[in-house]
Fold NitT/TauT family transport system ATP-binding protein.
Amino acid sequence: MSFLVVHRVSHTYFTKKTAITALDNVSFSIEKGEFVSFLGPSGCGKTTLLSIIASLIRPTEGTVMLEGEKIHSIHPSVGYMLQQDYLFPWKTIQENIFLGLNIMGINTQETRQKALDLLNGIGLKGTEHHYPNQLSGGMRQRAALVRTLATDPKMLLLDEPFSALDYQTKLKLEELVWKTLKDYEKTALLVTHDIGEAIAMSDRIFLFSAKPGRLVRTFLIPSELRRLSPFAARQHPTFSELFQFLWKELDSLETVK
């Protein structure tokens, strides 16, 4: 059985006067260790789907299964990284990256040391006792990644985690996140509006239609790109060809009335 299975998921937001369907009959499966991106027009339900997989929202219809078991509540095997770092400004970086360990009741000397080793490994050695306002945006996002990985989740959900960064920092962080997830053999789902980012980081891209969100196409990234780091993939001739193709596909979805 696949690592993650999303089966016939639909979701409607209800108010007193309206009912807005965000997702309609979405099904797919993801294998362990895959990096998959969700790409589609604004408002197509990508973040809603990520929230359903994280059990932050219960779908109106359908099921989500992780390693053969239905997910009913927030699962320790799932880590979530958002657009903003959401570090607590009154806590040190060390205190911030230990938060998940405290919440899950696994704050031991061993898990704390692993978190600090990871902090050092991604270039933040010596920042343990700094506060978030003493770090740049890219450094804070790296600290947020450590906080997410500290609890050793099997799968990471990434909701446009680089969108608030300048372009150079964004490229560096893409490289770092990609390498870190490969080294730790994590499964990852990325929500993004950036076609280049999706191509550079992914094994597959799921393309969604506009409201209501439907999974309309799945693209397997060519092997010559998948084996390259994101920065190297952007330099490959195949990258430009695939970018133009996906651009046209997205444009056709956005212009459909």
Q: What stands out?
A: The beta strands are 4-14, 19-30, 35-39, 61-66, 69-70, 78-81, 155-159, 187-191, 204-208, 215-220.
